[in-house]
Amino acid sequence: MAKIDEVKAMVEAGKTKLVPGLVQEALDEGSAAKDILQGMVDSMSVVGDKFSTGEIFVPEMLMAAKAMAKGVDVLKPLMAGDSSNSLGTCIIGTVAGDLHDIGKNLVSMMIESAGFTMVDLGVDVPADRWIEAIKENQNVTLVACSGLLTTTMPALKEAVQTIKGSGLLGFKVIVGGAPVTQEFATEIGADGFATDAGSAAVKAVELVKA
Amino acid sequence: MLSKKQNLLETIKGGNPDRFVNQYEFMNLIMESRFIPSVGPGQIIKNAWGITFSWPEGQLGGFPMHDPDHKVLKDITQWDKYVKAPAIPTSDEFWAPAIAHANSVDRNEEFVTAPLIPGIFEQAHHLMGVEDALMAFYEEPEAMHELFDYLTEFELNVAKVLIDKIHPDCVFHHDDWGSQKNSFVSPDMFEEFFLPAYKKIYGFYKENGVELIVHHSDSYAANLVPYMIDMGIDIWQGVMTTNNTPELIKNYGGKISFMGQLDSGKIDYPAWSREEIAKYVELACKECGKLYYIPCLTQGLNRSSFPGVYDAVSEEINRMSKIMF
Prior knowledge:
Order of helices and strands of chain B: HEEEEHHEHHHEHEHEHEHHEH
Largest sheet of chain A: 5 strands, parallel
Number of helices of chain A: 9
Strand order of the largest sheet of chain B: 1-5-6-7-8-9-10
Strand order of the largest sheet of chain A: 2-1-3-4-5
Order of helices and strands of chain A: HHHHEHEHEHEHEH
Structural class of chain B: alpha/beta
Oligomer: heterodimer
Number of helices of chain B: 12
Helix content of chain B: 40-55%
Number of strands of chain B: 10
Number of strands of chain A: 5
Distance between the termini of chain B: 12 Å
Structural class of chain A: alpha/beta
Shape of chain B: globular
Largest sheet of chain B: 7 strands, parallel
Distance between the termini of chain A: 35 Å
Radius of gyration of chain A: 17 Å
Strand content of chain B: 5-15%
Shape of chain A: globular
Helix content of chain A: 55-70%
């Protein structure tokens, strides 16, 4: 098995301790950092699909994301300044009044795994903080707003409408969370919607490449 | 007309109930037995385990805070350094209100019920954050087994005092095990970590006179039902529509009963309407039928988040009883 294939298999299996060594071995064998990274991104896509279909559960997804992050740590020094693989920066957070973070964190890991640089604003994010974050960061291509509670759906609407009405350009807005539907996402003016972390990553790539 | 208790037993044992069991009517919850104060609306508190909870004004509940300043369990391998179970009160003074409440209940009519909130898994992730907890099952399974054993031992010590003081006929135990779509962990992982803990806890209650075990998890958990039966759960409360409840009743009715099918998220919201509630209650009663099923909001207590919803659901269940019985 080629070393990159081993990296891919071990990322998918969530082997956090093995992946960094295998990434280094792949580099030592002459594989390019960007090819190794792409291999890991492909693995996480498989992980996302398996999560969406219920074949794997939250711990397996978390372990895979952590394994990939460990592999990326090895690649980072070699890829500094190389933006060819980056899909840009994604600002993510849970909207005002909502303290839930597990769904947001899973989505964050999966979007990062797809090739974005993540800026996590945390939970209970007021509408104007999104605007500040977009202005503070370079190359923002995606803003991801999460809301779990039916009672924070108005806050989700306010966040999206504030962001879209700010006059700032160059990014798409994706929303998600238990009570969110495609109809609601469309109604509040979001560019995209996803039902879970795996499909959020797929949608994120689709949106910024559109 | 059967008593609430008789009607419940007829329903879950496949007998002849004379109406639907109406939500939590059979459980007389002795809330005075809860000795760890919980967070209220608009508050931030640190509880007896050292866990900080915040309940933003106007929201649906309190949430544990897990930023670096607030997380209690920072390293699972050193759980015993961070996790200290609180003292369990035994004084007559503390227990007097709970005992008086329990003594006031007609046990032929209702089950004296001990509310147990949170459960083992919830306590673990309140201490360390849900992501750390879920990854620790893989990364530090021995430490997680030790932590679960410690939390189980605490629950057993609570059980001894509850049984001594209020002699519950029923326990209502709260431990969320999944999202709307799936269980948090795989059935194999559930069998390894959750099943032994709950067999001990529920087994102890049953060995000491508790007739009924009601477990709350407002989630998908259809894949865990065989384990629920094995650990001694009589009624799974909080069963959501995503579980295909009619199919569960068909497959497992007689071994366990299902209480819910009225998803709180769809029904209990600011703009709720009586017409919508009537529609959902009618659908649930007709789909799930008269046996092994208790129509109920999926919320984990006998209340709703928005005023009027719980009572409206109860009234619609009574209406369906008149139609179907």
